[in-house]
Amino acid sequence: MLATTNEELRAENEELRERVEALEAQVTGTDGQSDTTQAATDAGDGGPVLLTSGGQPTKVIGALSDTDGIGVLGNATGTGATEGVRGVTQSNNNFATGVKGEARASSGKTYGVNGVTKSYETGAVGVRGKASRNTASPTYGVTGQTFSDDYAGAGVRGEVRGPGSGVEGITYSNTDGSAGVLGDCVYADTKVSGVHGKTPSYIDGAAGVRGQATDSSGKVYGVKGTTASGEPGAAGVYGKTTTAGGYGVFAEVPDGEGPALFAKATNGQAITANGDANVNGTLGADEMSISFLGASVGLSSNQAIDQNTSTTIAFDDENVDDNNEFDTSTHKFSPSSDGVYHVEANVMWESLSSGTIAFIEIESSGGTLARSQIQTGNSGQQSIRVSKVVRLQSTETVSFDAWQNDANGKEIKSGTDDRHTYATFTRLG
């Protein structure tokens, strides 16, 4: 309980002095009374005393050796805009702080600052940070740092029991890069998070991290993520779901309010989908295009096929292969993901005799998928086409075989731009 009389206040001050003496003895390494402790004793019950600890000047020290309790308590009981504890610094040096909370333990759920609000009023916060001065460099409402090795450790932790915010950061700076709350990863070689939001709630609308842009104009962002990495898998914003039916990233807008998701690329692909892309609605051709999934290949030169010998067609000239699914050394297509594919090939024979039987087949690692066969009525160039819609697994391979019973060395014609002999593999879904 708080002291309510002068006698109780004096008793608490005397207890505080005894704790300060013990603390200063630990700092100086002596059992005797230090100069600063003596100064505190000489001051009596008067105004605040300048104490020193470890070479750092400290206005007030609250030392607590008990397992639970409060080192320093500021209690404001008024009904106005009162403050329990207020820290102000006039320094312009880096890392100067009005109030600093530091958790030095290397494990456990420790907090530099732990803010809790029990208010149910909208806008109530456990910790509120405000950067109100226009500056020439990025400013931060709240910056928190922890050196804990525990994944649950946090530089700043905010907890709220009502509709308010656990942590609210506001900045009035008009400088690019300013932030109400900033999460910064200083280690480049580990899977750490600048900001990690987590919610165990199953209620619709609950969010680990929620970003909101309330202005109805301008290119504003509820959440904006930027990455400078060019490594595969790097992302400005990364979303992941571990349950069926969930979404790594979910975008939604009210009826008639515009696209739920917009992607723009000055150069390269705006959206890359390695897997199923399900669309419940329409795709505007002038707004979005889906990159080609599959491959288109041809022959770089004529290929000889011996009589009565089934021979793999040596497609080695790639026209399109965005996902590196076709191997020009084995002449086989291996899909990067499971799905339904349209597989097709056209073959032009340079010259076959009248009455010759010839065919081409679609071959997979599981067997023959399709065959197209002709018997020539006249001698000369002959074309054969085969196609089929098939369901393929990412572990399967697809190739084409050619066969003829005319004579050894009958050639398949390559042609400019692969217009005579070619194969295509197109994913449909």
**What's the helix count?**
2
Q: How big is the Rg?
A: 36 Å
Fraction of residues in helix: under 10%
**Might you state the CATH topology name of the domain at 294-427?**
Jelly Rolls
> Poorly predicted ranges (pLDDT <50, ≥5 residues)?
30-55, 285-291
Count of DSSP E strands? 21
Gap between N and C termini: 69 Å
Average residue-wise pLDDT = 74
Biggest sheet record: 5 strands, antiparallel
Examine the secondary-structure arrangement and name the CATH architecture of the domain at 294-427. Answer: Sandwich
- Give the neighbour order of strands across the main sheet: 12-9-21-15-18
Strand content is: 25-35%
CATH class of the domain at 294-427: Mainly Beta
Q: What is the helix/strand order?
A: HHEEEEEEEEEEEEEEEEEEEEE
Principal-axes shape call = rod-shaped
Structural class: mainly beta
Could you characterize what this model shows?
- This protein has helices spanning 6-28, 35-42; strands spanning 51-53, 56-58, 111-117, 125-131, 140-142, 154-160, 165-171, 179-181, 294-298, 303-305, 311-312, 317-320, 326-327, 332-333, 339-352, 357-364, 367-375, 380-392, 398-404, 410-412, 422-427.
- It is mainly beta and 429 residues long.
- Among the domains are: 6-58; 124-181, no CATH class; 294-427, Sandwich (Jelly Rolls), CATH 2.60.120.40.
- A five-stranded antiparallel β-sheet has the order 12-9-21-15-18, with no helix packed on it.
- The two termini are 69 Å apart.
- 18% of the residues are buried.
- Mean pLDDT is 74; it is low at 30-55 and 285-291.
